Sequence to fold (349 residues):
Amino acid sequence: MMVEPRCYTRGCKHDPRVDQPDGSEMSERVICDAFPDGVPDEIAYGDNPHVAPYPGDHGIQFQKGIGGRRTGLGDQGAGSTQRPARIRTRGGKKVRSPRNKEDAMKKSGTERFPEEVVRQLKTYVYRLIDPRNGETFYVGKGKGNRVFSHIHAAAGLEGDDSDNKIGRIHKIRLAGFEVAHVIHRHGMSDETAREVEAALIDAYPGLTNVASGGGADFGTMHAKEIIRRYAAAPAVFRHRAMLINVNRYSAERSLYEATRFAWKVRKTKAMQAEVILATVRGLIVGAFVADKWIDATAASFPGHSEQPGRLGFIGREAPKDIQALYVGKAVPDIFRKQGAANPIKYTWR
Fold:
């Protein structure tokens, strides 16, 4: 069998194993206590973790751990923490499969793509899916074996931060599951992949992605937003203005809070700005004056978490005459390169 059954790698206690009824590989199927005549593909190989009743499962659902009576367990009984070798039956003869998940993954080739596959994939866009609830929690683009890099990075993770993708992967593994990967589109140029990634990020709210995908100004909009955006006159800058794209945060907090916290900027550069302009989807929606830029700490910005290496500002709304110059105007195209991921733009050098 070329693909390791997921119900096996999850560590189910109900004896998942591969059976060959007529002794040939063509007849291979996954069986277990719940499905003695064959585990459904969506459970054996798909994203269904079988934690809820499923037709024909004889009232047996997934349970983590291996114990009790199991053919081929040898010295491992109930309560054993060592994972047994999978038992494969071939024409009535038992054949042992790899003992641990790492060996199984290497054998099945699921840790990386073969070189000939990499050449055909080119640039691709992928999703990482939590098998516990079927939720997509990360969208990314890459080449080669990028889709697997997050999984390897989580292997040595310490701590329990569920607000980032590595922490999410860690929790999935602690629960006895493995992250599902989906290659959404492949064979693309970098530019096309960037647009597909941005569109998917818009389509899946609540992702662990830090960046917006680089296409926020051209992303999901209501028809009225599109009219307002493209009917607006472009701004003419009469001040040294710092443009901050707050697309991802403007709905979660006040516009001032979304604009002032927290950014990777050089303090000397930021202090030169005469006005800070908040932008949403290419439209200037707010104008502020920064009195000072300080480290983005929880003590300096109550209600916010610590953001090492980032700055925030303490300031106020810009005077009415400055607001009239910029608010409601469109960001000129020169500052809106499609696909640019940096949310900060400066109107001076």
Notes: DSSP finds eleven helices and twelve strands in the chain.
